[in-house]
C-alpha cells in the first residue's frame, strides 16, 4: 500500500515537473520586459488608431440623466 502511494506521488511530481519545464521554456522565449512593454504599447497605439478610424467612440457614452449631489 505504501509503495502504491509512493508511485502515485512520483507520477504527480513528474507531471508537475513537466508543467514547470513547459512554463520555463515559454518564459525563456519572451523578450526582455523593457521590449515587451514597448511592443505591447505599440500594439495598443495601433489598435487605438485603427478603432478610431473605424468610428468607434473614444469613451463610454454619457449617462442620460447625470446624477447630481443635492447641496442644502
Descriptors for this entry?
single chain; 72 residues; 68% helix
Structural class by helix and strand composition: mainly alpha
The stretches of 5 or more residues where confidence is low (pLDDT under 50) are: none
> Structurally, how many domains make up the residues?
1
Q: Got a strand count? A: 0
Q: Percent range for helical residues?
A: 55-70%
* Strand fraction: under 5%
Main beta-sheet annotation: none
Shape: elongated
**Continuous helix count:** 2
- Average pLDDT number: 83
> What gyration radius follows from the Cα positions, in whole Å?
26 Å
Written as H for each helix and E for each strand, in order along the chain, the element string is HH
User: Assembly type of the shown chains?
Assistant: single chain
Report the end-to-end length measured between terminal Cα atoms. 78 Å
Note down, in words, how this protein is organized.
By secondary structure, the protein is mainly α. It has one domain. It is about 70% helix and about 0% strand. The chain has 2 helices and no strands. The chain has helices spanning about 1-30, 35-55. The longest helix is centred in the N-terminal third of the chain and has 28 residues, at about 1-30.
Amino acid at each position: 500500500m505504501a509503495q502504491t502511494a509512493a508511485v502515485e506521488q512520483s507520477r504527480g511530481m513528474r507531471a508537475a515537473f513537466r508543467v514547470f519545464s513547459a512554463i520555463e521554456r515559454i518564459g525563456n522565449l519572451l523578450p526582455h520586459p523593457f521590449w515587451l512593454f514597448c511592443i505591447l504599447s505599440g500594439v495598443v497605439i495601433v489598435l487605438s488608431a485603427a478603432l478610431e478610424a473605424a468610428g468607434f467612440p473614444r469613451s463610454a457614452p454619457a449617462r442620460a440623466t447625470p446624477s447630481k449631489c443635492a447641496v442644502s
